[in-house]
Specification:
The complex is a heterodimer.
Chain A lengths: L2 H41 L17 H7 L2 H34 L3 H16 L2 H11 L6 H8 L13 H29 L3 H9 L4 H30 L2 H6 L11 H11 L3 H34 L1
Helix pairs in contact in A: 1-12, 2-12, 3-7, 3-9, 4-7, 7-9, 8-9, 9-12, 11-12
Chain B lengths: L1 H29 L5 E7 L4 H17 L3 E7 L2 H14 L5 E3 L3 H9 L7 H7 L6 H5 L2 E2 L2 E2 L2 E7 L1 E5 H6 L8 H11 L5 E3 L9 H12 L16 H17 L9 H9 L3 E6 L2 H9 L7 E4 L15 E8 L6 H11 L2 H8 L7 E2 L8 H4 L2 H5 L1 H13 L11 H8 L2 H12 L3 H19 L2
Parallel strand pairs in B: 1-2, 1-3, 8-9
Antiparallel strand pairs in B: 3-11, 4-5, 6-11, 6-12, 7-9, 7-10
Helix pairs in contact in B: 2-14, 4-18, 5-13, 9-10, 11-12, 19-20
The chains are: A mainly alpha, B alpha/beta.
Chain lengths: ~300, ~450
């Protein structure tokens, strides 16, 4: 075989090898991401139901219908409240916890504190839901009964059946459940900050607050930024906790977008409409993530300078 | 080239093995011996019932070594979702239970069931209640076999009624007054549970409307929530919720709801004979005070009626490759010993759907059956008089959809939480149901 052809065969061979390695991953992506995504977009333009095999293309009818449905907008508003307060709460408590953890000198105590604080995160969400449902039960729950016995409330507090209380209660549970993840990650980031930078700041006469703003924050903001992106998407899409505790009730007071989509698609069996709501949710999250990543990229560029 | 040849040979070899296996199965089937694998979905997730079914399956497999029965259990609430999803994915069983005859009507709407007339004839058609079979009959063919039956009756606590000097209510007005009077000292008169993920709101409204001679469906099978009796019924249950029920129950499903009565928190409840087993497991000390009566009526001199009788069916799916195994296994489940064992898992909760069982010594020797003979007779009468929700117009997919969409429950929540006027909320829910009927019914 001529020398130049031999080289080409070798390149072709290595190209095939590359495909061999990349192929399975691509297959997984196609099966688990591209196919469901395309199907959802396709169904969003149809009147497909779960129990009828045939369906018709209906153009933008589903979009018009969903966007004029008051339940969609109230679920969307609930999702925003649930996500914003959930992320901020988890961030505030997780961040504070990490700073406290970083201050503990004794390695033994630090481990004890770290393990204790991570317990909520270790619970499966079904256990979290059941425990809080039982603790806050408006008939025999420990918390409402204690509040009444202590004279703090007149009757039994109704955390899950009062529309004004249900969302704050769920957000509290979500913060309790999710702050350890933030804490552990921020704590890990804090460990990477060189100690000499704090010493230099101290020599320059910087206060504790100034050290925090000018040394700590720049070092951990990228990690925190990524955590915020992750938690935003996770919390926005969270379904199980709310579904298991209130099912979105009472009267939709705790219904978020995933609950709305589930109710439309599974209970109502309107697959077309549920797909439309899913596409809208996806678009919103993609836009949000793009904005987040722009900020994070800017921070990273600033760090590189 | 060499690799390609080897791959082709291996493919051929695999295919020949598959076909060889298939022809071997056919040959064995030709011998008359059952051979094959079936999947059986059921919702008997509680220990004793699950064990009874599993034991029967194990015994059947021992008798027929060529048969494998794969049992998959799932909660009642998940079953509907699972088979609905299976319509698209093809993941459907060979045979299954169904939640009620309403669900069988839904399955028939999409044409996924096989006729079970052969197995009914094998067991003895005249042993089944004609009403029960009628609920699952389309064009003269029966598509579900009632495995056990129960009906909704009013449960009360004798000790609480006696202490308050009250008689067992006969009318809705008497029920309401008694429930209000008993709401004190940590006890609630009655719970009104309204989670849209369950059917309790529909069930309660249906009691009231049926007692007034009405129906939640019109003759043309459209929804009817705006009739005078439906409006009155909605107002009645909203009042019961506000004055006798724990506020928490606005989000409760059937299990949460029933537990309140099991634990002695509610004085009245509406349910089947499962109440007895629930109280026995939670508060055995209350068991002597638990009893039931037929559902309240509008007027004391109105005839007795039953608003909801349920026959839990077994069905064979159209896609099954081994309907003969399903039929043989179902017939085996109804053999006296197997059937009595199964029913004894929840005595008085699950009443036999065929004659000739409740009189047997094995059945009657159960302590609970003996202690609650009166209650069993009341439930048996309610089974005889009643049908599934919406089935007063005959079996229809609309009847099933009426109960499992959560729309009536959302309507109740809207009225209670947002103060929406009853007539307005009822009209909106009615329109929503009719829209779903139109989209779903083929």
């Amino acid at each position: 075989m001529p020398h130049h052809l031999k080289g080409r065969t070798s390149i072709q061979g290595s190209s095939l090898t590359r495909w061999f390695f990349v192929g399975p991953a691509m297959l997984v992506v196609i099966c688990l991401l591209i196919y469901p995504l395309c199907t959802t977009v396709l169904y969003s333009f149809t009147d497909k139901t779960m129990i009828r095999a045939d369906f018709n293309f209906t153009g933008f009818e589903n979009y018009t219908r969903i966007l004029t449905d008051p339940d969609f907008w109230s679920s969307f508003a609930n999702s925003l409240v649930w996500t914003i307060f959930g992320v901020l709460g988890q961030l505030a408590i997780g961040f504070t916890g990490a700073l406290c953890l970083n201050r503990i000198k004794s390695p033994v105590m630090r481990n004890v504190f770290r393990i204790t604080a991570i317990i909520p995160w270790a619970f499966p969400s079904i256990a979290t839901a059941m425990v809080w449902k039982w603790l806050l039960n408006g008939i025999y729950g420990f918390v409402p009964v204690s509040l009444r016995n202590l004279g703090i409330t007149e009757g039994l507090a109704q955390f899950f059946s009062t529309p004004e209380l249900v969302m704050p209660t769920l957000i509290f549970i979500n913060i309790w459940f999710g702050f350890p993840l933030i804490m552990v990650n921020v704590y890990a980031a804090l460990q990477t900050i060189p100690q000499d930078q704090y010493e230099a700041a101290q020599i320059d006469g910087a206060s504790a607050w100034q050290s925090f703003i000018h040394v700590t924050v720049p070092h951990i903001r990228t990690v925190v930024g990524l955590l915020v992106v992750m938690r935003t998407v996770w919390i926005f899409n969270n379904f199980d906790l709310i579904y298991m505790i209130t099912g979105g009730g009472p009267a939709g007071a705790s219904s978020t977008m995933p609950i709305y989509i589930y109710d439309t698609g599974w209970t109502g069996r309107m697959v077309g409409r549920a797909s439309t709501a899913s596409v809208l949710l996806l678009l919103f999250l993609v836009i949000l993530c793009v904005l987040y990543f722009r900020v994070i990229t800017r921070w990273e560029k600033e760090d590189d300078k | 080239m060499k690799k390609l040849t080897i791959a082709a040979l291996m493919l051929l070899l695999s295919l020949s093995l598959v076909f060889a296996n298939g022809s071997a199965e056919s040959a064995q089937a030709a011998d008359g011996e059952l051979n094959g694998t079936i999947t059986f979905w059921h919702s008997f997730t509680q220990g004793k019932r699950m064990e009874a079914v599993q034991a029967a399956a194990d015994q059947f497999m021992q008798m027929h070594p060529g048969v494998t029965i794969n049992i998959e259990t799932m909660a009642w609430g998940d079953f509907n979702t699972k088979w609905n999803a299976g319509l698209t994915t093809g993941d459907l069983p060979d045979m299954s239970t169904a939640q009620n005859t309403g669900e069988v009507a839904e399955m028939l709407n999409v044409g996924v069931l096989r006729s079970v007339d052969t197995v009914i004839d094998a067991i003895g058609r005249d042993r089944f209640s004609a009403n029960a079979l009628g609920d699952m009959t389309v064009d003269g063919e029966v598509y579900g076999i009632p495995y056990y039956s129960h009906a909704q009756v009013m449960w009360y606590r004798e000790d609480l009624l006696d202490a308050a000097g009250l008689d067992v209510p006969q009318t809705w007005d008497e029920f309401y007054d008694a429930a209000v009077a008993l709401t004190k000292d940590g006890v609630y008169g009655a719970a009104v549970s309204l989670s849209p993920n369950d059917l309790l709101g529909t069930r309660y409204l249906n009691y009231y409307v049926r007692s007034a001679g009405g129906s939640l469906l019109n003759d043309d099978l459209t929804a009817n929530l705006t009739s005078p009796e439906a409006i009155e019924g909605i107002k009645f249950w909203v009042d019961v919720y506000k004055n006798c029920s724990p506020a928490e129950t606005i989000n409760y499903t059937v299990n949460d709801h029933a537990t309140l009565y099991y634990q002695g928190i509610t004085a009245f409840d509406f349910n089947s004979g499962f109440q007895i087993d629930g109280v026995r497991n939670n508060r055995p000390d209350l068991l002597p005070y638990v009893s039931c009566a037929m559902l309240p009526r509008m007027n004391a001199d109105d005839p007795l009626y039953s608003a909801e009788a349920t026959h839990i069916p077994l069905v064979i799916w159209q896609n099954s490759e081994h309907p003969e195994i399903c039929e043989a296994f179902i017939e085996f489940l109804y053999e006296e010993d197997n059937y009595t064992d199964f029913l004894s898992a929840v005595p008085v909760g699950m009443l036999p759907s065929i004659s000739g069982i409740s009189e047997t010594e094995a059945y009657r020797s159960n302590e609970i059956v003996q202690d609650f003979a009166e209650e069993e007779a009341i439930i048996a009468e309610a089974i005889e008089l009643g049908s599934a929700i919406g089935f007063e117009h005959g079996p229809s997919a609309q009847a099933g959809l009426l109960a499992n969409q959560g729309i009536i429950e959302e309507m109740f929540q809207d009225i209670i939480m947002n103060g929406t006027p009853v007539e307005e909320a009822a009209a909106a829910a009615e329109a929503e149901l009719n829209e779903i009927f139109e989209a779903m019914v083929q």
